[in-house]
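Late entry, evening session. Most of the bench is empty. Finally got around to the prediction I had been postponing all week. Sequence below, unchanged from the version circulated by S.P.
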Amino acid sequence: MQQEINNNFSKEDEFYMKRAIELAKRGTGWVNPNPLVGAVIVKDDRIIGEGWHRKYGELHAERDALSRCMEDTRGATIYVTLEPCCHHGKQPPCTEALVQAGISRVVIGSMDPNPLVSGKGVKYLEEHGIKVEGCVCNEECLAMNYVFFYYIRNKEPYVVMKTAQTLDGKIATYNGLSKWITGEQARENVHADRHRYAAIMVGVGTVIADNPMLDCRSTAVSNPHNPVRIICDSRLRTPLDSRIVKSAVQIPTIIATCSTDSDRKSLYENAGCEVIITKESEQHVDLKELMNILGEKGIDSVILEGGGTLNFSALQAGIVNRVQTYIAPKIFGGTDSKTAVEGKGVANVDEAYQLRNKTVRLLGDDILIEGEL
């Protein structure tokens, strides 16, 4: 197969690939750090099998679809959103399953940048007499797996900085109250993202001020998973009786620090927390080093729900890939009221962090602005 994008596909090809994309998205939040993948098997102009990668460690989309076929698959076409794998991991190669099933044509939506695959899946299929074509609905398939593609190429998590603020940029009143700035629809969207991304990160100041649980309480997802909780705590000040520490046995919890206080470290570890020590960067946790460590642990994405200090540190460190800002139609005012991004700030207007590929939408009374950095 020519591995460049081909735009000359039939409406039927696009129809079946769009269905495969719909199926793939059902794995959102369950498959990290694997990609979202969907598959549709078609024979005699009929769908005879559908599947998707449902959960990390379980069947890949192609094998899931094959397992649900009640008809002979010989001579059929399979539409799959990502190049089939050809290596042994937690699951055997999908390419072998397609050959054994007698599939005659494979239509893919995007190539797999994983060095273990990256064209090798296509080559294997073609060497076994299967016609391979792609890439159908390529932009949609790439957009769906933006986290996976970033993680595979950079070996560190994709970071989303989320803020909820008033029209005048305040994230709390002058006496520290912040519940609730935004409405129910915005908060539900936040919890859906906690299910979507692998981890959530805050600063120790947020833990001390709010004593949050940082779990996922999405009502739109059945039995949503809780993200790994990460606290940036340079001096190990996280209260041992905080809700996060007390629930660390049930929900994976990481405390990132640059403190070498071994006694304090042991107290957190005995409570069920993992403690990561980084070098110090301007008296804070070195966020770039932390991202490298998290990537090595298989954490492919982090939603940053910190305060203004951590947010500015993250921007300075260059770890933020995407910004989500929820704006409520309210004004708090006050020079002592906390803002979404604090720190020293930039000196010149042309040094501002500028968003690209921006979107704006309404969520009830609130506005959500998103963009990439």
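Two things to note before I forget:
The chain has a mean pLDDT of 93.
The chain has twelve helices and 16 strands.
Will write this up properly tomorrow.
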